[in-house]
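User: Just a sanity check before I run the rest of the batch. Below are the structure tokens for the first item. I only need the designed sequence back.
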């Protein structure tokens, strides 16, 4: 894969040509879900690219719609930006039927994807009509979630992930959406810094482990709840850290609440503020998809994690290709 393999097509999917050697591309999948393409101003003017054009690498998820253009005569460059295919899914909202808070979903995964995304993209994206072999059983999807969150959460409940692949045809092309099983690479491959893999690890132990929650109920009576995190991050009303090891904070419920609601909201706050371990890695010799599971061992610290891939950043220019993976939440 190199920068000259990337194709630009018009809004109907008809090819305009390949990117040139001056281009530099940065694609984010799983986090910001967008891209930035930089090229020489002279080449941009000669090639006639426009807002609404598509950029893609056939047979992969790498690509998106050009919807932002910035020119700089000082740098002699044009910056073209837009959402990736995942990013476009993120711009849609899944709404339940009137009066309902959730959607209860059962059936074959690709059929469900087709129903939920009907009318979203006018042929730019199409759901594969092949039976995926994946069954969704009584999944409850929160209402009013964005399309990407809703679809990936649903598939994850069945051990599956969302696959998006741009398929080029004779006169046009489109993104094919399908459900496929999650692959657990940790069963047979362990990535380590022995094999062209570079790690950034963080073991953060400065987090809050005691959260004092307070607020007023409907009768304006004060409610106070003490929540505690243990060494594994589990939250309860039993204290695990004392003395110099205790890290306390306050959470004030600003709206009327009962004790159960305060515990629910406080638990979420405490988990967000607690200790964590983080592993990100750059892999040069193998590629995995967002949603797949990898195991990584950083030899210097001994930190081992088995986590899903939640993000990928592809950087391409004429000489280099790098893919950085974000692992874990």
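Assistant: Here's the designed sequence for the first item:
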């Amino acid at each position: 894969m190199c920068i000259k393999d990337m194709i630009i097509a018009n809004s109907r999917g008809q090819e305009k040509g390949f990117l040139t050697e001056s281009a530099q591309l940065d694609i984010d999948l799983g986090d910001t879900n967008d891209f930035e393409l930089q090229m020489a101003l002279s080449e941009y003017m000669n090639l006639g690219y426009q807002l609404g054009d598509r950029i893609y690498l056939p047979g992969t998820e790498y690509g998106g719609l050009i919807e932002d253009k910035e020119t700089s005569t000082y740098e002699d460059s044009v910056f073209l930006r837009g959402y990736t295919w995942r990013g476009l899914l993120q711009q849609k909202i899944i709404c339940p039927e009137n009066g309902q808070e959730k959607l209860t979903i059962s059936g074959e995964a690709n059929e469900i994807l087709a129903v939920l995304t009907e009318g979203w993209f006018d042929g730019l994206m199409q759901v594969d009509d092949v039976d995926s072999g994946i069954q969704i059983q009584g999944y409850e999807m929160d209402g009013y979630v964005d399309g990407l969150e809703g679809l990936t959460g649903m598939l994850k409940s069945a051990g599956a992930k969302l696959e998006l692949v741009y398929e080029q045809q004779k006169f046009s092309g489109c993104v094919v959406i399908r459900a496929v099983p999650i692959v657990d690479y940790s069963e047979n491959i362990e990535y380590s810094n022995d094999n062209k893999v570079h790690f950034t690890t963080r073991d953060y132990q400065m987090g809050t482990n005691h959260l004092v929650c307070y607020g007023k109920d409907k009768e304006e009576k004060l409610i106070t709840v003490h929540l505690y995190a243990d060494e594994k991050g589990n939250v309860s009303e039993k204290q695990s850290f004392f003395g110099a090891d205790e890290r306390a904070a306050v959470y004030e419920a600003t709206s009327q609440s009962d004790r159960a609601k305060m515990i629910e909201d406080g638990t979420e706050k405490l988990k967000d503020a607690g200790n964590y371990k983080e592993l990100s890695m750059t892999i040069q010799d193998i590629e995995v998809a967002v949603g797949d599971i990898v195991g990584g061992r950083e030899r210097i610290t001994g930190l081992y994690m088995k986590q899903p891939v939640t993000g990928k950043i592809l950087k391409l220019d004429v000489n280099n290709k790098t893919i950085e993976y974000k692992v874990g939440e």
